[in-house]
Design a protein that fits this description.
By secondary structure, this protein is α/β, with parallel strands linked by helices. It is built from 22 helices and 18 strands. The chain folds into 2 domains: 166 residues, Ribosomal Protein S5, domain 2 (2-Layer Sandwich), CATH 3.30.230; 315 residues, 3-Layer(aba) Sandwich (Rossmann fold), CATH 3.40.50. The protein is 37% helix and 17% strand. It has a 5-stranded parallel beta sheet with strand order 11-14-17-10-18. Helix 7 crosses helix 20 and helix 19 packs parallel to helix 21. The protein starts with a strand and ends with a helix. The protein binds adenosine-5'-triphosphate (ATP), magnesium ion and zinc ion.
C-alpha cells in the first residue's frame, strides 16, 4: 500500500514543502528512509516505530520505505516524525484514517507517542502559507507562536494517538484562535530608562540621532563613565517594532530555538550583547548546527559590543559585510544560507588599555606602542562603517547628585518616532526604512546641500582626510539631524554636527 502526506522543511529561515511518500509492502520486515536525510532523520525510524507501538497502534511487520521528496535538498532534524508516522498508519486501510492528505504535519515524536515542540515553527508556517497551504497539524507546545499567523487553520496535538483519533473523526480539535500583534503587550519591555542617567547630554543627543536614523555608534571613554549604562538604555528610545519586523525577528529567534516559551512572538527590539570571548561562529551563525548567530538574533534591534577592541580582529572584520548589507551569508557543509542581520551596532571602548588616555584629570600609564596596538584592532574600514563616534567623559560629583529631573526615554522616543515617520514616508516603496541604509542614489537625492553646507563638508573632507564612505555617512547623519528638527533641507549646522561625530578618527587613529 502506498500513501503520501505533506510536511515542511527549513533552509535558513525559509521553509519548503516535503512530500513524505510511504510504501508498505510484503517482504522482509524493515524500515528505510531515502531522499538526502541526515542522521537525525535516520534516527526517526526508532522514534516513529516506538511511538506507534507505545500508542497501542498497529505497527506493520512489513517492508516500509519512506521517500522524502524533493530528493536533492538536504533534510535535517526531527520535524518530519509526525508526518512519517501518519503516512505509515495511513497505508493500512484498517486504521480507517480519512483526510490525511488535507494537512501539513510538523512535529517530533517521543518514544511514548507524545508530540514534542519543535524549533522554527513560525518560519515554516509563514512559508507554507505563502505557498498556499491552509491546514496544519503541529505540536500543541508550538501553538502560541502559530497563533500570530492569520488566514490558516492550525490544530495543536499532544500525542500521536490524538492525531489519529482526529484524522478518523473520533475526536474534535478546534483550530487555534488567531491573536492580534497589537494586543500583545508586555509591561516594561526594556527595563532601563534614560531618566536614570545623570548629565551626559552629548552622549544622549548622539544616541537619539542614532535611534532616529538607524546609525551605528561607538562610545569612547574611561572606565565607569557610564558607557554600558547608556548602551543598555538605547533600546528604550527605538521606534516600536512593526508587525512585519516582528515576524522576521521571530522567525530568526524561532529557528535558533531562542523564543520565549509563552510569548510566541518577539515584540520588543532585541538587544544582544555577546561577550568578547565569544567565538566568531557564535556571532555570525553557521557551523555544524547551522543556527543563526548573535548578529542575526540582533536583527531589527541592537548589537552591543562592549570593550570593542577586545574582540578578535577576525571577529571584528567579519562584521564588515553584514554592516554594509544587512545580511550574513554563512557557509555550511554542503550549502550556504543567508540570515538577516539588520542591526544597529552600538560599540564601546576605553581610549587605551588603562583607560585614561586623553583624560583631563587622570594619568595614562600606557606606552605609545601599547596604545597604537590597542587601537589598531579597529581598522579604517570598520570605523568608516560606524557613523557616529563620541567621547563619553566621567560625570562630575555635582551632576551625579543633582536633583534635576533628567528627560525620560519616553520623551526622547517621541522625537525619534517623529523623525522615523518622516523617513517611512520618504522611503515608501523602497526597501530601507531608515536614513542609515540609504544607497548611493538615495543619498544623492535626499541629501542635497546648500552652498554653505557644501563648503563646510569640502573643508572637513580635506582637513580630516575622510574616505568616500565617511563622506556619505556624514550626509546620512546630517539628514537624520534635519529630520529630528522637522526640516526638509539640510543646512550647514546639521552638517557641522554630523562632522563633529567623525573627528575622533583623527584624534585616535591619526
Ligand atoms: N551618568 C550617570 N548617571 C548615573 N549613574 C551613572 C552615570 N554614569 C555611570 N553611572 C554609574 O556607574 C556605573 C558604571 O557605569 P558603566 O558600567 O556604564 O561604565 P562603563 O563606562 O561601561 O565602564 P567600563 O569601561 O569599566 O565598562 C553604572 O552602573 C551607574 O551606576
Ligand atoms: Mg562597560
Ligand atoms: Zn592608558
Amino acid at each position: 500500500m502506498l500513501s503520501k502526506v505533506l510536511s515542511f522543511g527549513l533552509k535558513g529561515i525559509e521553509g519548503f514543502p516535503i512530500d513524505v511518500e510511504t510504501d508498505v509492502s510484503n517482504g522482509l520486515p524493515g524500515f528505510d528512509i531515502v531522499g538526502l536525510a541526515d542522521t537525525a532523520i535516520k534516527e526517526s525510524k526508532e522514534r516513529v516505530r516506538n511511538a506507534i507501538r507505545n500508542s497501542a497502534l498497529s505497527y506493520p511487520v512489513k517492508k516500509i520505505t519512506i521517500n522524502l521528496a524533493p530528493a536533492d535538498v538536504k533534510k535535517e532534524g526531527a520535524l518530519y516524525d509526525l508526518a512519517m508516522a501518519v503516512a505509515i498508519l495511513a497505508c493500512d486501510e484498517e486504521n480507517e484514517i480519512k483526510n490525511e492528505k488535507k494537512y501539513v504535519y510538523i512535529g517530533e515524536l517521543s518514544f511514548d507517542g507524545s508530540v514534542k515542540k519543535v524549533k522554527g515553527i513560525l518560519p515554516l508556517l509563514i512559508s507554507a502559507r505563502e505557498a498556499g497551504f491552509k491546514e496544519f497539524i503541529i505540536p500543541y507546545g508550538n501553538l502560541t507562536e502559530a497563533s500570530f499567523i492569520e488566514g490558516i487553520n492550525v490544530y495543536g496535538v499532544k500525542t500521536l494517538l490524538e492525531t489519529i483519533a482526529f484524522l478518523k473523526g473520533e475526536q474534535e480539535i478546534l483550530p487555534v484562535q488567531s491573536c492580534k500583534f497589537e494586543n500583545v503587550t508586555y509591561a516594561n519591555k526594556y527595563g532601563l530608562d534614560f531618566s536614570n542617567v545623570k548629565g551626559q547630554k552629548m552622549a544622549k543627543r548622539a544616541l537619539e540621532i542614532a535611534a532616529a536614523g538607524g546609525h551605528n555608534l561607538i562610545m569612547i571613554g574611561p572606565p565607569g563613565s557610564g558607557k554600558s549604562m547608556l548602551a543598555k538604555c538605547f533600546p528604550s528610545i527605538l521606534p516600536d517594532l512593526t508587525f512585519d519586523e516582528a515576524l522576521e525577528v521571530t522567525k530568526i529567534h524561532s529557528v535558533a530555538g531562542e523564543l520565549d516559551g509563552d510569548k510566541g512572538i518577539v515584540n520588543a527590539r532585541p538587544f544582544r550583547s555577546p561577550h568578547h570571548t565569544a567565538s566568531t561562529v557564535s556571532l555570525t551563525g553557521g557551523g555544524n548546527n547551522s543556527k543563526p548567530g548573535e548578529i542575526s538574533l540582533a536583527d531589527h534591534g541592537v548589537l552591543f559590543l562592549d570593550e570593542f577592541p577586545e574582540y578578535t580582529r577576525h571577529t571584528i572584520e567579519t562584521l564588515r559585510q553584514p554592516l554594509e548589507d544587512g545580511v550574513i551569508t554563512v557557509a555550511r557543509a554542503n550549502a550556504t544560507v543567508c540570515y538577516p542581520a539588520n542591526f544597529t551596532l552600538i560599540a564601546s571602548m576605553n581610549p587605551c588599555p588603562c583607560g585614561n588616555y586623553g583624560s583631563k584629570d587622570k594619568e595614562c600609564h600606557c606606552s605609545a606602542g601599547q596604545i597604537s596596538k590597542y587601537l589598531a584592532k579597529l581598522s579604517g574600514p570598520i570605523m568608516d562603517r560606524i557613523d557616529i563616534h563620541i567621547e563619553v567623559e566621567n560625570v562630575t560629583y555635582d551632576q551625579l547628585k543633582s536633583e534635576t529631573l533628567e528627560e525620560s526615554s519616553a520623551e526622547i522616543k517621541k522625537r525619534v518616532d517623529k523623525a522615523r515617520a518622516i523617513q517611512i514616508e520618504r522611503f515608501k516603496g523602497a526597501k530601507n526604512f531608515a536614513n542609515a541604509k540609504m544607497n548611493v542614489a538615495q543619498t544623492k537625492k535626499y541629501c542635497k546641500l546648500d552652498q554653505q553646507g557644501e563648503l563646510l563638508l569640502r573643508t572637513a573632507f580635506e582637513r580630516l582626510k575622510l574616505s568616500a564612505r565617511a563622506h556619505d555617512r556624514i550626509l546620512k547623519v546630517a539628514r537624520t539631524i534635519a529630520d529630528l528638527e522637522g526640516r526638509e533641507n539640510i543646512s550647514a549646522n546639521h552638517i557641522a554636527e554630523a562632522i563633529s561625530y567623525r573627528t575622533l578618527d583623527r584624534k585616535y587613529w591619526n
